[in-house]
Design brief:
Length: 234
């Protein structure tokens, strides 16, 4: 089954993190047919150099350039337009795939044509993948996911795989928190979800991650999300 990988990059990313991330994508036991990398605004010279290096080595790397930084949701919505495969796997530019991530997830999507969104467990780490600080697993079956989704985001977005046509039909990503808007719309449309319990991705964390999950702007964003969920009768 052909599939695309969708990534978004902006100037604050660390070049060494990008290297590890892209290297894990192109070293898979099942290599993607294309990797669509959205450059969300101008990059640093170091990041530009790293992207060129991978593009020269891997012709499957396709660049989509946005002149001004527009945020993750907008960048992903733009990138989806350039994915030529109906199966799309998400990947962040600072995370690291396990070598068999795509083999297992794409295989599941191929054998379960009724599933439109799939994610897996993830391993949170700080600095190196040997320093695992948490394991995040979500409910596995669709009915369990439906119940869980009323209170918490039901998909590990960094390890998500979805069918492109269903995402486009639902209007794509929303504002922050971008993916929760999308999953809610897809659930309301009746699309089926599944979460593999096996961790297939290393999620880069830090002591600052939780500090950013607070403050007035975060409160406003989450309040707007709740209003949206209420309006669509979620």
């Amino acid at each position: 089954m052909r599939f695309s990988v969708l990534m978004s990059l902006y100037w604050r990313e660390h070049p060494s993190y990008l290297y590890e991330s892209l290297n894990s994508v192109f070293s898979q036991t099942l290599v993607p047919d294309e990797v669509v990398l959205v450059e969300d605004g101008p990059l640093t010279p170091e990041l530009d150099s790293m992207v060129r290096e991978f593009q020269e080595k891997y012709p499957a790397l396709k660049l989509v350039k946005i002149p001004v930084n527009s945020g993750l949701g907008n960048a992903l919505n733009e990138g989806i337009k350039y994915c030529t495969c109906n199966i799309v796997a998400r990947m962040d530019t600072d995370d690291i795939c396990k070598p068999d991530r795509f083999e297992k997830q794409i295989g599941f999507m191929e054998s379960h044509p009724d599933v439109h969104v799939l994610s897996s467990g993830i391993l949170e780490f700080i600095d190196t993948v040997e320093n695992i600080t948490a394991v995040k697993k979500l409910p596995e079956t669709h009915n369990e996911i439906l119940c869980y989704s009323r209170k918490r985001c039901p998909v590990n977005h960094p390890s998500a795989v979805f069918r492109k046509h269903s995402v486009i039909e639902c209007g794509g990503y929303g504002p922050f928190p971008e993916d929760y808007y999308l999953w809610a719309k897809m659930i309301m449309k009746g699309y089926k979800f599944h979460n593999l319990q096996e961790p297939l991705l290393f999620f880069r964390s830090s002591n600052d991650v939780y500090k950013r999950r607070g403050g007035w702007n975060y409160f406003i964003a989450m309040s707007k999300l709740q209003v949206f969920l209420y309006k669509i009768k979620f």
